[in-house]
Write a structure and sequence with these properties.
This protein is an alpha/beta fold. 34% of the residues lie in helices and 28% in strands. Strands 6-7-8-3-9-10 form a six-stranded mixed β-sheet, sandwiched between helices.
């Protein structure tokens, strides 16, 4: 980790975290630092533990060992509703009831903030309208989800997480199944959320060059352990790509962004 990153406080941090499914160990003794108000990308081959780590840091799975902290507090000690207020999670392949409109879906994001049988408030309405505006889905608010394109549907789900108004967004492979134009649109949205709205975003990504261009912090995973973590320039090297992915490559400069660009051989 670079000196610049050490100066940024950790929004989420895992200390000696191990995760298992039954008797099968997935992650061993993980030490993970997620800088506040930054975009962190988790990258690595299939089976490296990316999605499992994301679920565990969201509080959806309990580690078999270790501690996960949110702003220095153990998430095990935080009430479920407080976690839901502070962390928005979008997993792979979310499913909504048939006929649900975009606005209906986005309103679901306000659930953690509402008392049982509580009335819909002006704050709830403002949060939903802001989420629709940020994701460019205001014009689609009355449209059923099953009539949307893949990119539109993904933006609607992200709007739901934004309606929670949490400080942290955890996204599991958010660009999967999206065409190139919608991938760029989504990554630009994440950039705006971090830069202009102070969000901390962690996303599982498969595209190394996409991660290098958009993420400020990259965690390279191999076999449930961190192989390298830090800024793209510090993490993505020809040696690291060969070790983690078993692929020979050349690293050049992205002619547009100036970030590392991996060219497989």
């Amino acid at each position: 980790m670079s000196g610049d990153e050490q100066a940024v406080p950790a929004k989420l941090a895992g200390h000696h975290v191990s995760i298992a499914y039954g008797m099968q160990s997935i992650v061993e003794d993980l030490g993970l630092f997620v800088p506040e108000r930054r975009f962190t990308a988790l990258v690595g081959p299939n089976g490296s533990g990316k999605s499992t780590i994301l679920r565990t840091f969201a509080g959806l799975m309990a580690p078999s060992r270790g501690t996960i902290l949110l702003d220095g507090r153990n998430i095990d000690k935080l009430p479920t509703k407080e976690m839901a207020k502070r962390i928005g999670v979008l997993l792979q392949g979310p499913v909504a009831p048939e006929g649900l409109t975009v606005r209906d879906l986005v309103r679901q994001g306000r659930y953690p903030h509402r008392a049982f049988f509580g009335r819909w408030s002006d704050e709830d309405e403002a949060a939903c309208e802001e989420a629709l505006m940020l994701t460019g889905t205001t014009i689609l608010a009355g449209t059923p989800l099953d009539r949307l394109s893949g990119g539109q549907r993904q933006r609607a789900w992200i709007a739901m997480t934004l309606a929670q108004r949490g400080e942290v967004l955890l996204l599991d492979e958010p660009t999967t199944y999206l065409d190139l134009a919608h991938q760029i649109e989504l990554m630009n949205l994440i950039t705006v959320l971090v830069r202009d709205h102070g969000k901390t975003v962690v996303a599982v990504l498969h595209d190394l060059n996409q991660a290098a261009r958009y993420a400020e912090h990259i965690v390279l995973l191999k076999g449930g352990r961190i192989s390298a973590a830090g800024r793209p320039d510090d993490v993505l090297s020809e040696e690291a790509i060969a070790d983690v992915f078993g692929v020979r490559s050349v690293i050049i400069r992205d002619p547009v962004a100036g970030t590392p660009l991996c060219v497989p051989l």
